[in-house]
Amino acid sequence: MLTQALAGERAAFGALVRAHQRSVYSLALRMLSDRHAAEDLAQEVFLQLYHNLASVSSEAHLGFWLRKVTMHRAIDRLRRTPRYASAAPEEAAAAASDTEHADPMLERRLRSLVSELAPAARAVVLLRYQEDLDPVEIARTLKMPVNTVKSHLKRSLAQLRERMNETADALT
Amino acid sequence: MSPDLENEDLERRLHGALEAVDPGERFVPGVLARIAAEPAHAQRPPRAAAVVSWLAFGLAASVVVAVLLAHEWQLRRIEEGREARRQLVEALRVTDEKLNLAYRAVNTQQQAAPAEHSGA
Fold this sequence. Notes:
heterodimer, A: mainly alpha, about 80% helix, B: mainly alpha, rod-shaped
């Protein structure tokens, strides 16, 4: 698919987008907490990919490249537009997958709390739990020392656990 | 909801809560439309764009090499001119020396001849 897209086949490039759109769009949505901004950013990422396809060497490299560009663009947009950084997290919280889960309310609350994390910490948490990357891969993607990734994860988990327990206490 | 979420439980729930979502059917056509809306030069397929870039680079490199070769040829011609001039000056100097020797020899013979006549 990559080779065909590289040869300039629009249909092959479309298939490539379809294969990676969930990951790119979800990262953008959970970083920006805004559906329109997320869709726009995700499209920009694929546009950039179209022009840089020759520099992508394999499917694995493609995944790494897409995650890296998405996160850097999202963090950059958060810096330039503070509106997104302080946006109400309802949209990110509502962005549930198609899969049915045991406790949709709890998951919705978790998504909302993740969207309230600081951008760098949010990026680390998303790459860890949405993309299943290990700390070394996250460090490479975000160009961050591995120890910084680990401390972001530790602090974010502590913060999320504390806030979730507060929510539970308020409900009981 | 559990009163005290353990780390492992929280991580499991995070995996569930942060599953990727689909942007919808309109996403791919949206991306392709944005590509199509770009100026013609930006729309070239990646490999064609790469080929054009390499051709441009090759052409620019050829021009630089041609200029360097022309400069080198010019320097060689100047050096050859200097060498020819040096050889000409040397030849003139040698000729001058020989003429001086010949002149001195003729002068010496002429001065010697009247003295012989007067002595006789």
